[in-house]
Automatic annotation (TrEMBL), chain A:
Organism: Companilactobacillus huachuanensis
Pfam families per the UniProt record, alphabetical: HTH_30
Domain PucR C-terminal helix-turn-helix: 233-284
Superkingdom to which the source organism belongs: Bacteria
Official protein name in the record: Helix-turn-helix domain-containing protein
Gene3D superfamilies: PucR C-terminal helix-turn-helix domain (1.10.10.2840)
Automatic annotation (TrEMBL), chain B:
Keyword terms: ATP-binding, Nucleotide-binding, Transport
Gene3D superfamilies: 2.40.50.100, Nucleic acid-binding proteins, P-loop containing nucleotide triphosphate hydrolases
InterPro entries for this protein: AAA+_ATPase, ABC_transporter-like_ATP-bd, ABC_transporter-like_CS, ABC_transpr_MalK-like, ABC_transpr_MalK/UgpC-like, Mo/tungstate-bd_C_term_dom, NA-bd_OB-fold, OB_MalK-like
Pfam families (alphabetical): ABC_tran (PF00005), OB_MalK (PF17912)
Boundaries of every ABC transporter domain copy: 4-238
Organism annotation: Companilactobacillus huachuanensis
Superkingdom assignment: Bacteria
Stated name of the protein: ABC transporter ATP-binding protein
Entry's Gene Ontology molecular function annotations: ATP binding
């Protein structure tokens, strides 16, 4: 473990290492040497809370002068451009060599996206791109490609969340607040670039079900081994197309059929049934 | 000169369950200039290993040694590695020249050196006339070559390629396959190439690493893994169409599936089965489609290896046909001469060349030899 992280854990034994900011309402989250650490506010006295809030760089809202940032975070703020619809891209660049490199990363990235009206950093690695929504939608796969391309040139590892189109009115700051949480949730997913569709299931489960006894028990029931999880994920991704799934899994159709039946016998869930399949897919998230 | 040692590598992702290793005990020595292909079904851990070599993922346990140096903790940038990804993306707003130059500019190469490297790569790839075009003005194949060019200009002694052809249509895939092989012959860069396509592995590799569920199943030349698969997984995965499998009982030099398949095992093979204690045991018999014959002449050579099967489908490929048929409960496929045409429902005598058969232990699934 990185030295600063372990020092922090020594000082605050109730702190925990996490992949992404966790439970931002009740916890404080810190990025220490590229590692997220979380601690419940209830475990801290006022004095510590105050001191720790000073090192919480990602949340340093008030020192960022950008007008779009103000609009995204303050309800009463006027939009720099009125009457337009925008999409907010949030990103975090890990492993950049320097601030200049991060800046350069952003400069190139915004040239690959149409109709960017503003882009800025809100922390050493984290930033925002504002796109005016035009007729053409940005394609998630395209953005993923661009991020992968840039990361290969800069040797960085970047996470990005593409927001939905919103009109820049008074609801924007509340909505953006939720999109921030989606972004944080998305950081632990396998793909680096996400949007609402790719993050929502994980987000809801994390929020509502992770602590549920019922969910935990069901999870244990369907989480048999890697081959089974792989089968469920593949079936889900292939829209239950057996031919496609058996090809991807490299098993004969009959074998897949047999495994589905065996799974039904042991768990009571029938993977050929859409609802059962979706439930098992969720349980394994 | 570059050699790579992967010593007992394990990978567990932070967010995965306690016992879930994406890669377990991966052990491989890669020789200088070698073209190694990792092949296996989706989710078996191929990309994970590649990303650990590139430094994009941490190694949970084990050692990565490049040219005798311990590299587990070296930053990606410090590793002398060029990576080509699945999607072959290019910067849409830059010319071909600038697309290739970009990575070098970031690394502060001077202009003349950049120019020299790009001219060289363009010559190797036949892109000299396209350097001032933008990606949108190129054909799919040309774009792929520019993406390769971006790797070539890095002048790195190691190339990592993650399913670089999987998004291409079949025709382009075949021509790019040849192009990459040619490139390797010319540049002699040590290359690790990841694919889920066994045909790519067979045609391109010096050596193949067959993987399944995070574990190495077999390492060998294409010929070795094809002719001497170590277990049933490798036997079934390598080769197209796949090897046929028959559940049989072996007894006194004969195999029998209890449903009409009864064949004599050649002496050399039955000797091994006897010695290994399989007399009276259930085993799996594997036979490749090309080792099943429909010509009458074969029947005369091996009268005790002939079965009477029902034809299900016959697919005409050209000079050969794929004959799907059934004996007892078992479906199997044979590659036969198209002159021996058979309709569905026909009854046909097929001769199994059991000298070429593979036998697998029913519980370990390992080959018996
Ligand atoms: N970032 C990640 N986080 C968690 N699990 C992952 C991540 N990347 C891959 N995996 C899991 O690790 C296993 C191997 O994946 P991968 O190396 O991508 O396989 P392949 O390239 O052979 O298709 C899979 O079960 C996959 O779901
Ligand atoms: Mg992969």
């Amino acid at each position: 473990m990185e030295e600063n992280v372990s020092k922090f854990l020594d000082l605050y034994p109730s702190a925990e290492i996490v992949n992404a900011p966790f439970n931002v309402d009740e916890n404080m989250n810190f990025l220490i040497s590229n590692q997220w650490v979380t601690i419940a506010k209830s475990k801290l006295n006022e004095h510590d809370k105050f001191l720790l809030s000073l090192i919480n760089k990602e949340e340093s809202k008030n020192t960022i002068k950008n007008l779009w940032w103000k609009k995204l975070t303050e309800e009463k703020q006027e939009a720099p451009q009125k009457g337009i619809t925008i999409k907010v891209f949030q990103f975090r660049i890990d492993k950049a060599q320097s601030k200049e490199q991060s800046q350069q990363w952003l400069n190139v990235f915004k040239d690959t996206i149409d109709n960017v009206i503003d882009s800025f950093f809100i922390g050493p690695n984290a930033g925002i791109v504002i796109q005016e929504k035009n007729k053409a939608n940005v394609d998630l796969a395209y953005v993923q490609q661009m991020v992968e391309l840039l990361d290969s040139d800069f040797y960085t590892n970047t996470h990005m969340y593409i927001g939905e189109p919103w009109s820049a009115d008074k609801d924007l700051s509340d909505i953006f607040n939720e999109e921030r949480e989606f972004f944080y949730s998305s950081i632990r997913l396998k793909n680096n670039v996400n949007d609402l569709s790719t993050v929502i299931l994980d987000y809801l489960i994390d929020r509502n079900l992770r602590k549920s006894k019922l969910f935990k028990n069901l999870h244990r029931r369907v989480n048999i081994d890697m081959a089974t999880s792989n089968m469920i994920n593949t079936l889900y991704e292939c829209d239950s197309n057996m031919a496609k799934a058996s090809k991807l899994l490299f098993v004969h159709r009959n074998t897949l059929q047999y495994r589905i039946e065996k799974f039904y016998e042991t768990t009571g869930f029938d993977l050929k049934n859409h609802e059962d399949l979706a439930l098992c897919f969720l349980l394994l998230k | 000169m570059v050699e790579i040692d992967l010593n007992h590598i394990y990978k567990k992702y932070d967010n995965s369950k306690e016992s879930d290793y994406a890669v377990s005990d991966f052990d491989l020595h890669i020789k200088d200039k070698e073209f190694i292909v990792f092949v296996g079904p989706s989710g078996c851990g191929k990309s994970t290993i590649l990303r650990m070599i590139a430094g994009l993922e941490d190694i949970t346990k084990g050692e990565l040694i490049i040219d005798g140096k311990y590299e587990n903790d070296t930053a990606p940038k410090e590793r002398d590695i060029a990576m080509v990804f699945q999607n072959y993306a290019l910067y849409p707003h830059m010319t071909v020249y600038d697309n290739m130059a970009f990575g070098l500019k970031l690394r502060k190469y001077d202009k003349t050196e950049i120019d020299k490297k790009i001219k060289y790569a363009a010559e190797v790839l036949g892109l000299e006339d396209y350097l001032q075009r933008r990606p949108a003005e190129l054909s799919g194949g040309q774009r792929q070559r520019v993406a390769l060019g971006r790797a070539i200009v890095r002048d790195a002694p190691i190339f990592l390629m993650d399913e670089p052809l999987s998004n291409l249509d079949a025709k382009l895939r075949v021509s790019m396959r040849a192009e990459i092989a040619k490139l390797h012959q010319r540049l002699n860069t040590t290359t690790i190439y990841v694919t889920h396509d066994q045909t790519e592995a067979m045609t391109m590799a010096d050596r193949i690493v067959v993987m399944s569920m995070g574990e190495v199943q077999q390492i060998g030349t294409p010929k070795e893994v094809y002719l001497h698969p170590k277990n049933k997984f490798v036997a079934g995965f390598m080769g197209s169409p796949s090897m046929n499998f028959f559940d049989v009982t072996y007894r006194d030099g004969m195999i029998n599936d209890g449903k009409g398949l009864s064949l004599k095992v050649p002496e050399g093979r039955s000797k091994v089965l006897n010695e290994r204690g399989y007399n009276g045991q259930k085993v799996t018999m594997g036979l490749r489609p090309e080792d099943i014959h429909a010509e009458g002449a074969m029947e005369e050579v091996w009268p005790n290896s002939t079965v009477n099967a029902d034809v299900i489908v016959s697919e005409l490929l050209g000079s050969t046909s794929m004959l799907y048929s059934k004996v007892g409960d078992t479906e199997f496929v044979a590659i036969v001469d198209s002159r021996d045409y058979h309709k569905p429902g026909d009854n046909v005598n097929l001769t199994f060349d059991l000298n070429k058969a593979h036998f697998f232990d029913d519980s370990s699934l390992d080959a018996i030899y």
